[in-house]
Amino acid sequence: MQDILTHIDAGVLTLTINRPDKKNSFTPAMYAAMAAGLEQAKTDPTIRVTVIQGDMTVFSAGNDIGDFLQRKPSSQESPALQASPVFDFLHAIAQHPKPIIAAVCGPAVGIGTTLLFHCDLVYAGDNAAFSMPFVNLGLCPEAASSLLVPQMMGYHRAAEALLLGEPFMAEAALEVGLVNRIVPPTEANAVAQAQARKLAAKPLESLVETKRLMKKGLMPQVLAQIAEEGASFARLLQEPAAKEAFTAFMEKRKPDFSKT
Ligand code: COA
To answer: Is the whole-model pTM more than 0.70?
Structure first.
């Protein structure tokens, strides 16, 4: 799987999103590879920390829009997105027991931003641009972002990000606490690695227990929100507004929602 590169060194698993010609947008196979990487990190005692990174120009343009267009309606047998690779990935990252660090440069769209709410530390290049344009695509939030974004940013800033779908830059992300530090894009991946090595040198059981204790209060709500969002998302994917938004993106034109 060349679109997700996997590298293990000194107790650190690095997952590099590597589909630059499509701005690192995620296909189902890429979600499956990310979920498999996190599963390996969970069970392999030699892996203590995971780093998720893109390159210095792009983190991820979110879900592949061509893939969205091809999604079949969910059925009774396979309700919502619950049985899909994206769901496996969301469950894996939300419940991952060991530390996860992200290095983010350039665009981080959709799941490129929402996955960061499930990372423990985030280092951003000063060119990082975060956005969650779900409404602009006729969709709704995922990855429990409808719960976690208002909680982190406050309701009104969350509404700007999730209702208007307005992008925000690294400085704003630092201010609301989504990002730990802003660094030059050339240094972001190296800073994440250095922090990962610091964590990897600490007692693993203490790390795991501390993360569990910090997360346990909200975890049932996070999992319930992922499920509810998933059902709404799957329904909205089949609606005319989403079809128009995806088609417009592929045809490189503005969407026309006047008939939807
Ligand atoms: N799905 C599929 N292809 C995508 C994509 C996505 N999410 N994002 C970018 N691409 C493709 C473009 O179609 C283009 O392909 P082409 O060269 O075959 O025409 C290529 O990647 C480069 O994208 P481009 O838009 O020209 O790059 P840019 O630097 O001008 O803009 C982004 C980068 C990320 C701001 C822009 O591509 C974008 O907004 N992408 C869509 C993001 C989105 O809505 N994601 C879904 C979130 S739920």
So the answer is: yes
